[in-house]
Amino acid sequence: MSKLFERMQKKQLTRKQKSKIEVAFIYLIIAVMFIIIFYPLFWAFAISMNTSSNLYTASLSPENWSLDNYRWLFTNPRSDYLLWYRNTLFVSTVVTVVTTLLVTFTAYAFSRYRFKGRTYGLYAFLLLQMFPVLMAMVALYILLNTIGLLDNLWGLILIYIGGNIPMNAFLVKGYLDTLPKSLDESAKMDGAGHFRIFFQILLPLAKPILSVVALFNFMAPFMDFILPRIVLRSPENFTLALGLYNFVNAQFSNNFSRFAAGAVLIAIPIATVYLVLQKYLISGLASGATKG
């Protein structure tokens, strides 16, 4: 009995040791990921607080922390930062509202109705997700030039909306498939029409996945550089990513500290939208991946 008891104790110790090792390994991974994520953020913030505009002379721990770069962005007559910020907010807001609305209607139709071409439409969504918008940039450039929307924010908005619909519609469709159709049938028995079912029953239940779609669409214009670079030409139409590029290009090649200051301020609207939608985001990300 004593030997058996000793063996059981050894097994318990072994399990505890394994558990401690697993927990330590998990914390190690979290620490490494935190450093990887936090270092670029700290670098940008520290560089933005330097008085030196040169990247090589700037320090991650400046002796004199200064807000001069931020003041320059907002007060200097040569700075178009506020204009670029306004352009980006305009593009992001329009893209978010229109894309979310179109995606919701499209996903509802594919989830709740059975019609000819439905299966092929879903296959088309999957196929379109495999190819980035950049593959069609030559055709889009010619199209925008033909309809007079080249070097126009509305042309950029149209590209964003068209490119975002397939992926987001398939994501929302997967979420709506998890909602029981008995809700629709019960509402129909009470005399509700299709629009009432959609707006009063399904739409409130779909808030989590719609929050995810809205956040992703809002973030895209702030992060994207290549599409604005191809579509926009005039400085007054630049978005933030394209405008800030000029701080480290050509005659502005030494303004890395101002570039960092502008990049830090990009996080404000994105963080604001995230905080507003955060209670829906986790459940939306998890549920959107479920296919009914």
UniProtKB/TrEMBL annotation:
Transmembrane portions of the chain: 21-46, 89-110, 122-144, 156-176, 197-219, 256-277
Gene Ontology CC terms, in alphabetical order: plasma membrane
Localization: Cell membrane
Gene3D superfamilies: MetI-like
Record keywords: Cell membrane, Membrane, Sugar transport, Transmembrane, Transmembrane helix, Transport
Similarity comment: Belongs to the binding-protein-dependent transport system permease family. MalFG subfamily.
GO biological process, one term: maltodextrin transmembrane transport
Record GO terms (molecular function): ABC-type maltose transporter activity
Annotated ranges, domain ABC transmembrane type-1: 85-277
Membrane topology according to the record: Multi-pass membrane protein
Alphabetical list of Pfam families matching this protein: BPD_transp_1
Protein name per UniProt: Maltodextrin transport system permease protein MalD
SUPFAM superfamilies: MetI-like
